[in-house]
Amino acid sequence: MQTKRTQWTRRSVLVAGAASAATAVLGASGCAAGGSGTKKNGPKLAGASSAAIKGNLTVWSWDVAATALKRLAPEFERRHPGVKINVVDIGYDNAYDKITVGLKSGKGLPDITTVEGPRFQSFLGNFPSGFYDLSALAAQYNGKYDPAAWRTASDDKGRVLALPWDTGPCALYYRRDHFQSAGVDPNSLATWDDYVKAGEQIKAKTGKKLLTLDNAEDNTFLLLLQQQGQGYFQGGKVAVSSAKALRAMQLLKTLRDKGLIDFARGWDGYVTSQKTGKSVSAPYAAWWSGTLTTEMKELKGKFGVVPLPAFDAGGVRTSNNGGSVLTVTSQTSNAQTAWAFVQFMLADPGNQVSMLKEEGLFPAYLPALQDPYVSQPSDYFGGQPVNKTFADLVKSIPPIEYTKDGAKANELVWAANAGVLLRGKDPKKTLDSTAEQLASATSREIAS
Predict the structure, then answer these.
(1) Using CA atoms, how far apart are residues 88 and 110, in angstroms rounded to an integer?
(2) What are the phi and psi torsion angles at 387 (to 5°)?
(3) Angle (nearest 5°) at CA 48 between 46 and 53
(4) Where are the beta strands (DSSP E) in 30-126?
(5) Which residues touch 407 (CB under 8 Å, ≥6 apart)?
(6) Which of 21, 153, 242, 315 is the most interior residue, by most CB within 10 Å?
(7) Residue-wise pLDDT tens for the chain (448 aa)?
């Protein structure tokens, strides 16, 4: 799920074999989540039976994810008489403060909570006992989720502590009318070099910029880094000055130097830039379609989607921006029912397709992407089956490493972006300095 603000990576996501949860016997071991500073693992969930599904659950979420939970919960209640699901929309602005307070204090958390993938990785690093270990039950789904999303639901030891919900496969949205006016074929953009050349042609013939970037908190650098199979960290070491990182930043600097970027401030500025046609393309995630169809209805038929340009011909043509998980907190007294509800929501193709249709949540659950609905043409996109375009890209999203220091890395990278893109600083010197700052702040080594 994506909210109307810049996130770190918004939803990005490991383990092996077990019997079906529907027929196994549930066992829960361990203790409730400890307070701040605890480093022991959380309790384990070992199996389930339909007889154990009873009682009440409280679920925290926000925005369209809360809407989806509220819409589907009555069907779970119908299947399990006596069970009541209370979905609380805690609002995005307060969500992580509330979750952090609950993890630190060891009390106050619900049975289940929504967490964005990269944020979940931060919580796992700082509060490893805060969530149930679902490895034994989730093993049956190994290989059935987007690998990148599955990674964000797991820790660095391979334990699965959540199920992935939605994912954010990336492609290139483009304005058909402006590309046509400039004589640019979007299907010819095989590499980022092609993209830059097309931008120069579009600017010369239409006066339009090629893309929009947030001048304060833009995540395109990370999108480009993940496309190359890397995040901010590698093997626990700081990697923001690697050769791949430099290549990503040099691409952004080139776009800046050629005057192809329209700089905007925040979500509203980004939307306005695209809506008014100041820029003609957007390397963005599947959920951007929902913004176009709801906030730019007058532009129906004027947008198309192609895979991202690759860094090298034949290379990876997607990345990720977004994704969330549902996790069972260690503070629940009803873990059996909590797992059953998570499974109902996220491991059911029908429910996942329903959430794509109704709330625009793009499934991380691969069986859902085989549904005929995914291949239907979209009137808004001129008859193009855009969901199919994204579905074909999902398995190619490179999984990357996350750590508990992702927020600090993002903060420093945003500062690096500003230095390079707004003030024209040298990409290599800037990234070397950023790596040194991040290493100092996190007591980590810099990857060689």
Answers:
(1) 9
(2) -60, -35
(3) 135
(4) 44-45, 56-61, 84-89, 112-116
(5) 8, 122
(6) 153
(7) 654 433 433 322 222 222 222 223 233 333 333 443 346 777 877 766 666 899 999 999 999 999 999 999 999 999 999 999 999 999 988 899 999 999 999 999 999 999 999 899 999 999 999 999 999 999 999 999 999 999 999 998 899 999 999 999 999 999 999 999 999 999 999 999 999 999 999 999 999 999 999 988 999 999 999 999 999 999 999 999 999 999 999 999 999 999 999 999 998 999 999 999 999 999 999 999 988 998 999 999 999 999 999 999 999 999 999 899 999 999 999 999 999 999 999 999 999 999 999 998 999 999 999 999 999 999 999 999 999 999 999 999 999 999 999 989 999 999 999 999 999 999 999 999 999 999 999 999 999 8
Residue 396 contacts by C-beta under 8 Å, 6 or more apart in sequence?
316, 317, 318
Whole-structure pTM value: 0.86
Q: Could you give the angle at the alpha carbon of 320 between the alpha carbons of 428 and 272, nearest 5°?
A: 85
